[in-house]
Amino acid sequence: MVGRERLEEVFDEPVTLPPAVDGTGLPAGPLGVSVRSASFSYEDNLVLDGISFEVEPNESVALVGATGSGKSTLAHLLVRLADPDAGSIRLGGVELRRLDPARLRREAAIVFQETFLFASTVRENIGLDMALPESEIRRAARLSQAEGFIEELPRGYDTVLGERGVTLSGGQRQRLALARALVRRPRLLILDDATSAVDPTVESVILKGLREELETTLIVIAYRVSTISLADRVLFLDRGRIAAEGSHYDLLSHPAYEAMVRAYELGAA
Ligand SMILES: Nc1ncnc2c1ncn2[C@@H]1O[C@H](COP(=O)(O)OP(=O)(O)O)[C@@H](O)[C@H]1O
Ligand SMILES: [Mg+2]
């Protein structure tokens, strides 16, 4: 009985608080992000402490901060994998909670460090359930620098992956996961350490390509100076607060930031 009561409490919990509207309020093109006084806790652990910042449409921003500073949690809030306990988050000027969740999934994509690949073909792993023209699949693979290794697989885009098929390296898996996000032409793209297993030179090529060929706002959580310095602007997170923001070069005068990126550089060497 106790178990059932608990389950019912969970089932009764509304998933979307205010009535969802569809995305007709969204502007065309890349979508800006506006975060105002957003706070978030896991139990009694305050992870984001009244964060406010803006990301302009088409801007690329690097989120930098020590492990545990709240970068991934913030990324989750931006695509509504969780809601802030207080404050507001807007995408293209529309409060996230008022956007239809299906619409939000189409407009905003997040790529994680760990990827899940299905035991099916490369093509299906990129396109999933979408019936996409071959040219779109190939464009996404090209932009994520996956085209080369895919074409070398025994059956190219028809190669079956996973338990009964070909096993990919970590960097190859990450590039497929990126292609899966790119093929949907998101208007906000968040990369949470999504290219960490990719060779740094290839990572730079990917990011430059994204900036040149993709109409999207880009938020990158990264640990390599070569990646961070490609962003238009850096947000430096420290224990759930924005400690500093500006260009990578501006922030080098911030001692904590400078110490952190120097450590990254040594780690990469
Ligand atoms: N699912 C979770 N449950 C409880 N605590 C979590 C969870 N995810 C992260 N945390 C905690 O929240 C804080 C911020 O974590 P996270 O957002 O993952 O930081 P970062 O990505 O900057 O390393 C850390 O103290 C972490 O232990
Ligand atoms: Mg993280």
SSE arrangement:
Blueprint: H1 2-12, E1 33-42, E2 45-55, E3 60-65, H2 71-78, E4 86-91, E5 94-95, H3 101-107, E6 108-111, H4 122-127, H5 134-143, H6 147-152, H7 170-182, E7 188-192, H8 200-213, E8 217-221, H9 225-228, E9 233-238, E10 241-246, H10 248-251, H11 255-268
Parallel strand pairs: 3-8, 3-9, 6-7, 7-8
Antiparallel strand pairs: 1-2, 1-4, 4-5, 9-10
Helix pairs in contact: 5-7
The protein binds adenosine-5'-diphosphate (ADP) and magnesium ion.
Question: What is the radius of gyration?
Answer: 19 Å
Structural class: alpha/beta
Largest sheet: 6 strands, mixed
Distinct small molecules bound, one entry per kind: adenosine-5'-diphosphate, magnesium ion
Count of DSSP H/I helices: 11
Overall average residue pLDDT: 92
The 3D shape can be described as globular
Percent in strands: 15-25%
Low-confidence parts lasting 5 or more residues at pLDDT below 50? none
> What is the CATH-assigned architecture of one domain?
3-Layer(aba) Sandwich
Fraction of helical residues: 25-40%
What is the CATH superfamily of one domain? P-loop containing nucleotide triphosphate hydrolases
Name of the CATH first level of one domain: Alpha Beta
What's the number of extended β-strand segments?
10
| N-to-C CA distance | 58 Å
Could you provide a short overview of the structure?
With 269 residues, this protein is α/β, with parallel strands linked by helices.
Structural notes for this entry:
The chain starts with a helix and ends with a helix. It has a domain at 29-117 and 184-268: P-loop containing nucleotide triphosphate hydrolases (Rossmann fold, 3-Layer(aba) Sandwich). It has 269 residues and is α/β, with parallel strands linked by helices. The mean pLDDT is 92. It is built from 11 helices and 10 strands. The strands form 2 sheets. It has a 6-stranded mixed sheet, with helices on both faces. Bound molecules: adenosine-5'-diphosphate (ADP) and magnesium ion. Adenosine-5'-diphosphate binds at residues 42, 45, 47, 65, 67-73.
